[in-house]
Amino acid sequence: MASDNGNHQENDICLEVSHLWKIFGDKADEVLNSDLQSLPKDEVLENTGCVVAVRDVSFSVKRGEFFVIMGLSGSGKSTLIRMLLRLIQSTSGSIKIDGEDILQFTKQQLMNLRRHTTSMVFQYFGLLPHRTVLDNVAYGLKIRGVSKEERYATAEKAIETVGLKGWEQYLPRALSGGMQQRVGIARALATDPEILLMDEPFSGLDPLIRREMQDELIDLQEKVQKTIIFVTHDLHEALKLGDRIVIMRDGAVVQIGAPEDVITSPADDYVREFVQDASPAKVLTAGTIMDEPAVLLYEWQGPKAALHLMSSSKEDYGFMVGKNRRFLGLITLKQLKSRINDKTLSLKDILVTDVATTSPDTVLEELFPLAAEADYPIAVVDESNRFAGEIQISAIFENMIQDKEEATNE
Fold first, then answer.
1. Model's pTM, two decimal places?
2. Which of 27, 48, 79, 91 has the CA that lies 20 to 30 A from 216?
3. pLDDT digit string, tens, across residues 129-149
4. Domain limits at 368?
5. Is residue 353 part of a domain?
6. How many domains does the chain have?
């Protein structure tokens, strides 16, 4: 069994899956209640005629998290996401949404869950071909019993959110594949669900449109901040979108972690082989490769103290911060030495404020152009402008060279 050992406060958890099994076949209980459950998938099939689709899966999802379930064909990922809405019934285990086990829900409770708490976007859009874009997006609200005026107003806002304003009266056949998928997303958003489930929504699109849709989904999530559970077989898509990723194989979870964890610390040979062609530059972040600087100066220090620190460390620069490590800029050794005999000199007089900065979450790929123009290491600062560390230009270029070499060898 693989499980999520993250330490989350209980009220942060939106979805919790515990020891979930799905076994197709008449002898499912026999498999589950015997040593057969530990056998490989093909041996269970040979001995009992049963198919183990999901094997003892446990994980939790935080509110507002972009949680990706990925694996190759037959890994159990699509079965799993359908189980989360009871579109496929579980053999055993529990699925708790906001603390309630939906496997114990009545038909009415389950209907309310699907209409109000969750919404699903499928791979092949699932649009009603003879209804307009507006009617398609408003359909879930119509089923819920919302008045025509209110549901159309809500649908129009959802259509604008996904960038389709002006297309309200068109039929689906007049839209491209990417636009049709946006309609599907708008329909899901119109009901204002707490959890948005997406089952390989972009896999039917051509590569260029797929990348555009990924970018748009990232932008959309910034606006709506939903809990998104996203299924894909594409590693690069998972690495690009996910806050955390579950990798499945033969119905079981083999690793759960942030994209960086999956790339840098694969759980086993299967994951290692799976991710070996992934570009670290697209995954590793500034926070991963930053270091504490050899010299960190404070605004209340004097010039001679700064000179001593830089000279003893053999650095020709030093980052300067204020209270609470608020980033101020950079002092160069050359300027400091040239004015050290000036008795009125303050470090602020020679402070270089035009310094390249980045956030800890910036991926290395985005740092390449910044590094090309920077004269000094890049300062890493958080959203409150607090200094977190520095990134040496050489470290960025080393990753760039490695990335190009890997691309050449593919």
1. 0.69
2. 79
3. 899 999 999 998 888 888 999
4. 287-402
5. yes
6. 1
